Amino acid sequence: MEFYKGKGEFWDEGEKPILDLDIRIAEGKLDVKLPLSYIELLKEHNGGTLKYTNIFIKENDKERFTIPEIYGIDFEGEQNGVGILASKYWINQTGLPEPIIILWGDYHSWIALNYEGNTENSSVVYFYEDYLSDNEKWKQIKIANDFDAFLRKLSRGPILDPKRLKPSYGRKKVNEFCSTTG
After folding, report:
1. Which end of the chain is more exposed for a tag (fewer CB within 10 A), N or C?
2. Domains delineated in the chain
3. What is the C-alpha separation between 97 and 127, in angstroms, rounded?
4. Number of other residues whose CB lies within 10 A of the CB of residue 85
5. Whole-angstrom distance, CA of residue 125 vs CA of residue 141
6. Structure pTM?
7. How far, in whole angstroms, is CA 54 from its chain's centroid?
8. Rounded Cα gap, residues 71 and 49, in angstroms
9. Residues 65, 52: contact at Cβ < 8 Å?
């Protein structure tokens, strides 16, 4: 498994880079300061599919979550659910808490910048629907204290080292069975 190191190929495919002026306009509309490392990525591609798509949501967790893309700034998509400017749209549609900026979502789970109590710095959180609770629709797990730490948690490749896997007992038994019966 290979982790993103902060330099090099982050995007698999993406939109054309965004201008500084558009970033400032978006920050004004969102009333937050976007993380510098996110801004730098937007200057490469204004959102798109990722090369590093896997993340472990909880520390020491063996179950990974896949994030296929990270949204960019789309002024035309603000009202119909496209890009980070559509965060308020999705908050209204789904009942997600404020103040968050949605980086990715599939309607049942979301990755977002959480600006709770601070418009300058954000943590990165994972929201998921809680089907068992009558009181709270959304549960959240903090993935990282900031966007840079979130980036360092993104990975690609297999979770398990194929060299450390033991051969399947099933294959061994089948092979032994075939050699004794044939």
Report:
1. C
2. 2-181 (3.40.1580.10)
3. 10
4. 23
5. 6
6. 0.82
7. 8
8. 9
9. no
